[in-house]
Write a structure and sequence with these properties.
Layout: H1 2-13, H2 19-30, H3 43-55, H4 120-131, H5 140-160, H6 162-169, H7 172-180, H8 185-198, H9 203-214, H10 232-250, H11 258-264, H12 275-278, H13 283-304, H14 310-325, H15 334-343, H16 350-360, H17 365-393
Helix pairs in contact: 1-6, 2-5, 2-6, 3-4, 5-6, 5-7, 5-8, 6-15, 8-9, 8-15, 9-10, 13-14, 14-15, 16-17
């Protein structure tokens, strides 16, 4: 509801907003989340641990948090039920990690019996933040870092259009998942937005930024078809290059718990994903249908990239991917909010909003499917109405200025008698 209220106020009263106003208010929106521990998940505790492990000269791909070999790195914040002098009984990486419980009462770190799943750029980010964060501060350093990233992205979006940027910077979703929960997805959102903004003028830089985003969370790699004119091989090369130091250090262990995570989360067999398709299909056919849809959308994006603004293609491609896979976690939608702002397609914000309702309905598969289906109906209905209005007007919808690299000044009152 808060997101809808913010969007309504911005749309009604935000025409004359300045960049500074949008950024300052975005900063204020991040402050409340810094005064309490993360709410929506415990992911930030894993981030803290991974950064600490790397500063100590170890690889988070080689060791699990409960491993007694890292006992000296424990503290009362991350291990309230296990001191550095106590033995956990864990040594090495378990053979059947996917069968281990997600939580352990001795630590708030989720999945403490398995190695990390996060890619190298995310791990580098955790390490930098850990360098400046005392152990006693717990997740606060990461919360501050995420808040600053959200504010930086607000500025980047506001340079394009302050009114639209407020939909990101003032969003309760962003405040909850950045300054409060410190989710690394905000870093991925910043890198994706920067890639889109720089795509026309500096295509090689845009490709590097997209590859880096993929090395924060793997989902941004789904946007490669939209970057067909922005050196996608450079993006893929950047992504692969980020893994080289870790491969040299730990070999195949660099995959961490990613395969097990995909199995646990139902991505491998489709058992608990693709909630919309699950309303009609059993797991096997559902997985095949999801794959066919994904390939078809990637091909369509590759084709449409010739004529459509890159922001628009990235927006619907990313949003459609979330609707097909329907991941349970709403913070996966942070990059989609930024892309919706760049593309000026506010209807796509319905997708991360639906994810919150689905997150609260975890375990109720039919309810989750209906929630995501409602979001899909909202998106499709809005697109249909917009096209009908454009067709009736006899005009072609103007592309977002993100593609030209030019700053949008149309929201500002014009003074034709004064030079800018």
């Amino acid at each position: 509801m808060g997101v809808v209220v913010v969007a309504g106020l911005v749309w009604r009263f935000g025409r004359g907003l300045s960049i500074a106003t949008v950024v300052v208010i975005a900063g204020l929106c991040q402050v409340p989340g810094l005064f309490h521990a993360p709410i929506t998940s415990t992911d930030a505790y894993r981030y803290v641990w991974d950064g600490r492990v790397q500063l100590a000269g170890h690889s988070p791909y080689r060791y699990v948090p409960l491993d007694d070999a890292l006992a000296t790195l424990r503290d009362p914040v991350l291990f309230p039920g296990l001191t550095s002098d106590q033995r956990s009984g864990v040594s090495g990486i378990p053979k059947d990690a996917a069968q281990l419980p997600v939580d352990d009462v001795r630590t708030p770190i989720n999945r403490p019996g398995v190695p990390t799943i996060y890619p190298p750029v995310a791990e580098a980010y955790f390490t930098v933040v850990a360098l400046f964060t005392p152990w006693s501060a717990g997740t606060l350093g990461l919360q501050i870092a995420a808040a600053l990233l959200a504010i930086a992205l607000t500025w980047l979006l506001a340079v394009q259009n302050p009114r639209w940027a407020a939909l990101w910077g003032w969003s309760p979703i962003v405040a909850l998942e950045a300054g409060s929960a410190a989710h690394v997805d905000v870093l991925a959102a910043l890198l994706i937005a920067a890639a889109v903004v720089t795509a026309t003028r500096r295509p090689k830089l845009a490709a590097v930024l997209l590859g880096a985003a993929g090395s924060v969370k793997l989902l941004p790699l789904l946007l490669l078809p939209a970057f067909r004119h922005q050196k996608p091989l450079v993006a893929l090369g950047t992504f692969l290059a980020s893994y080289v130091p870790h491969v040299l250090a730990v070999g195949t262990l660099v995959l961490g718990f990613l395969p097990g995570y995909l199995n646990q989360e139902g991505f491998e067999d489709g058992s608990s994903r693709s909630a919309i398709l699950a309303l009609l299909l059993p797991p096997g056919p559902r997985q095949l249908a999801a794959a066919v849809l994904a390939v078809a959308l990637a091909a369509l994006a590759f084709h449409r990239a010739k004529r459509d603004p890159i922001a628009l293609t990235c927006c619907w491609l990313y949003g459609a991917a979330l609707l097909i896979a329907t991941p349970t976690y709403p913070w996966y939608g942070l990059p989609l909010i930024a892309l919706a702002v760049l593309a000026r397609r506010a209807e796509w914000i319905a997708v991360p909003l639906a994810a919150y309702l689905a997150y609260a309905s975890f375990g109720h598969d039919t309810r989750q499917g209906l929630i995501h289906l409602t979001a899909a109906v909202i998106v499709v209905s809005t697109i249909t109405v917009r096209r009908q209005l454009v067709a009736k007007s006899g005009l072609t919808a103007p592309p977002p200025r993100t593609n030209t690299g030019e700053r949008d000044e149309t929201h500002r009152p014009r003074d034709l008698g004064r030079a800018r």
